[in-house]
Amino acid sequence: MMAGLTSSSLVLALLWALSFLAAHRALTGNAQSLPPSKFDGFVYAEHRVDSGTIVIEAFLDPVCPDSRDSWPPLKQAVDYYGPRVWLVVHLLPLPYHDNAYVASRALNIVNMLNTSATFPLLELFFKEQVKFYNAQTLNMSKASVVSYIANFATQVVANSLKSAVVSGFENTQTDLKTRVSFKYSASRGVFGTPTFFVNGFSLSDSDSTIDYDGWRSIIDPLIAAQGDPLSANVHSY
Ligand SMILES: *[C@@H]1O[C@H](CO)[C@@H](O)[C@H](O)[C@H]1NC(C)=O
Ligand SMILES: *[C@@H]1O[C@H](CO)[C@@H](O)[C@H](O)[C@H]1NC(C)=O
User: Fold this and answer.
1) For ligand 1, atom 14, which residue shows the shortest CA distance?
2) What is the pLDDT of residues 189-201, one digit of tens each?
């Protein structure tokens, strides 16, 4: 009796281990290779970058209200500085925003089809964000949400590309690309949105939304210090 129990638990354990290996193999078989062929993120206003360009990385979630509120002043500041500043937006779909991953995937799909439609779509998600909150989509099936978001995203592309946006959700590559954004954010230790890095360093008050004057007070001293490197503000190090 005892021996019988032991051997059947052993069999169960082996089966469990085998199923785990099979699942693990299935997952890794489907995995995207890292690092990706291109740096993650959407570049706002492509221009030449040199060692003096100030690099802002913004980690945003398209269905996060704080990300939405942080965007207009950041955009205004980046427009003000022009080629002195380079902005890249990384998507971090937060797991407690039910539709963040699907919305982020829509952005990746649109970006692959028409780069210039990426930021218009991000702004459209921000503008009509309430439609995609957890409470508003509570009774919708996953399939209905995907179809709703796919059709929503077609607004920013020409008629000729609308069906490609919808079928983009059946393309594994667009899923893998969205996973890379998530993995990149996690690899940088980012766990909330919006989070901002300037020249590779996290801003200490990232969690609160920085207004236009706030951005000016962050960037102006960096530009001034570049102009006169010997008087750079070393005191705060
Ligand atoms: C979801 O369904 C419940 C039960 O029918 C209903 O009371 C609720 O108002 C619905 N919520 C939305 C957002 O449609
Ligand atoms: C690309 O996106 C821009 C901005 O939304 C839009 O004006 C243009 O018509 C789009 N082109 C195509 C082919 O979708």
Assistant:
1) 139
2) 999 999 999 999 9
Hey, what domains does the chain have and what are their CATH numbers?
42-224 (3.40.30.10)
Length of the chain: 237
How far is Cα 125 from Cα 113, in angstroms, rounded to an integer?
A: 18
Neighbouring CB atoms inside 10 A of 132's CB total 21
Ligand 1 atom at minimal distance to the Cα of residue 137: 13
Nearest ligand to the CA atom of 136:
1
- pLDDT by residue (tens digit) across 134-164? 999 999 999 999 999 999 999 999 999 999 9
Three-state secondary-structure class, residue 224: helix
| pTM score of the predicted model | 0.84
Q: Which one, of 207, 181, 180, lies nearest residue 195 by Cα?
A: 207
User: Are 120 and 152 in contact, with CB atoms under 8 Å apart?
Assistant: no
The Cα–Cα gap between 29 and 25 comes to 6
Measured distance CA(78)–CA(27) in Å, rounded: 40
Q: Helix (H, G, I), strand (E, B), or coil: what is residue 211?
A: coil
Q: How far is the CA of 45 from the CAs of 1, 48, 57, 87, 88, in angstroms? A: 73, 10, 13, 8, 9
Query: How far apart are alpha carbons 106 and 112 in whole angstroms?
Result: 10
